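Handout, page 2. Input:
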Amino acid sequence: MKRDGLFIVIDGYRKDCAAPPNPSEETMLKLIERGWSLDKFECVKDVEGYMRQEYSIVEANDFSQNIIPSEVEIARKVRYYFAHPMFARVVDKLIPLDVAKGLIAAYLAPISMRRDLMCYYVHILKNNK
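Output:
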C-alpha cells in the first residue's frame, strides 16, 4: 500500500474483554466463533492494538445499531431452518456442513449484539510508512 494510503476494515468483534460474559453468553460466543470458523473471536480493543502496530487509525465507528435490523431479518429467515426439521435435512444435503454451521451464528448474532457482547466496526486505517 502506498504511503498515506487508506485501508478500510469492516468486521465483527467481541465487544469488551474486560467484562466476562456469563456461562450462557460464553456458550453463545463460542457457537458464533465456530459458525464463523474463527480460531478466536477477538475483542475490538485487541484488534485495534494489532492495527496500530502497522497503521494509524483515522476513524473507528461502531455500526452495530445500524446492523442489528439486517441481522434480525437474517435470523428470522434462519429460524425457519431450525423450526422445520424436514427442510433442514434437505438443506443439509445440499450445502456443506461449514455453511450450515454458519446458520447458528447468523441466528445468534443479533442476540449477542443486543446484549453488548459483540459489535461491528468500521475502521479506516492509514499507512504512515
